[in-house]
Amino acid sequence: MTEAVLSFADVRSRAMQIVGRIRGERQTPIVPAGNVAGRALTTVIAIMTFLAALTVGAVSLVSDTAGRWQNDISDEITIQVKPAEGLDMPTALETVRQIALQTPGVTAASVLDKAATSRLLEPWLGESVDFDELPVPRLVIVSIDTGKPPNFAFMREELKEAVPEAELDDHRAWVSRLVTMARTVVLIGVFVLSLVIVATTLTVVFATRGAMSGNRHIVEVLHFVGARSSFIAREFERHFLRLGLIGAAAGGLVAIILFAVIGYLTEANRQTAEADQISALFGSFTIGWTGYAGVFILVATVATLTALTSRWTVTRHLAEIDMISPVES
Are the C-beta atoms of 222 and 30 separated by less than 8 Å? Predict the structure, then answer.
């Protein structure tokens, strides 16, 4: 009996403090600011935002890289000359280069020297590739006018007549695959972001219900003594907005730092063959301003979603109280 009296007295005391706040007498929050549930929710939101930010950064990185690849491929084509018995490779390469230069729509043509070819093959064949012992194809890089591209069919016929070992690659198949890959990655990223947002919403709903259960008597007393539903919902919204903003900002900041560190390490080890291949694929491995803007938008979205979800949950709970015992709010 004593415990029940004390419990009622505590509830009444807390409720009167909050009523005093309504009247401007003192500042007492409805939901405790530093409880364990709040810290757990902040941690969960931080983790989810971190994963979502990684997804946003990865999508931005792949999209920018695919766009850069597509532009580079659209501006250039390659002519491969395969080694054959009795073939004078330097003469064949020069013949191919001259045919390319004489074709309308070609702006420049250059032979990829042995040093550059060896560097391209280094990750697979190691250093110091012996071109005399290995049948390594050689490349001629041809720059084209994207506004008035050359007639590739005519160029192929000219090359086959002059140098049968030459093969022209206009990279159309690669461009199609890159576009398909980029679209697939974007769709996967949107799907992952959707899952994270749904999981965040459900987590906030359960956390709000837990906070309502822990402060149920106080909320009901406030509601019955005349506190407006909008005031109570606003208090919960403010509390969870702060939690969501802290958690989302922490997760987004960690993701940005991770991308910055990876970009720095890639740039610092640029001289190695592995880093050179990574740079060829992903550039400097930075997500760019679009990626950073996406992370900031994600942080704001998660924080806003957290606040609105908590407000909706509290409003529904108060509506259920009104159905049981209607009061004027």
Answer: yes
C-alpha 262/C-alpha 245 separation (Å) is: 26
Residue type, 244: G
Q: Which amino acid is at 288?
A: G
Tokens of 155: 């160029």
pLDDT tens-place string over residues 166-214: 988 877 777 777 778 878 888 888 888 888 878 877 877 777 677 666 6
> In terms of Cα–Cα distance, which of 279, 276, 280 is closest to 263?
279
Residue carrying structure tokens 């009061």: 327
Torsion of CA 153, 159, 165, 168, to 10 degrees: -40
Rounded-to-integer distance, Cα 250 and Cα 99, Å: 59
109: helix, strand or coil = strand
Q: Cα(109)–Cα(144) distance, rounded to whole angstroms?
A: 9
For residue 61, which phi and psi values (nearest 5 degrees)?
Answer: -65, -50
In angstroms, the CA 154 to CA 141 distance is: 18
Secondary structure letter of residue 206 according to DSSP: H
Q: Tell me the torsion sign for CA atoms 26, 36, 249, 294.
A: negative
User: Could you tell me the two tokens for 107?
Assistant: 């702006």
User: Which of 298, 315, 113 minimizes the C-alpha distance to 234?
Assistant: 315
Contact between 310 and 234 under an 8 Å Cβ cutoff? The reply is no
Instruction: Kindly state the tokens that stand for 228.
Output: 């407006």
Starting from the edge strand earliest in sequence, which strands make up the sheet with 166-169, in order?
106-111, 138-144, 76-81, 166-169
Give residue for tokens 């004078």: 88
Query: Beta strand pairing status for 138-144 and 166-169?
Result: unpaired
Alpha-carbon distance of 268 to 180, in angstroms, equals 32
Per-residue pLDDT tens digits for 216-240: 676 777 767 777 777 777 877 888 8
Strands annotated E in the chain? 76-81, 106-111, 138-144, 166-169
Q: Residue 226 corresponds to which tokens in the numbers above? A: 């005349």
SS3 category, 129: coil
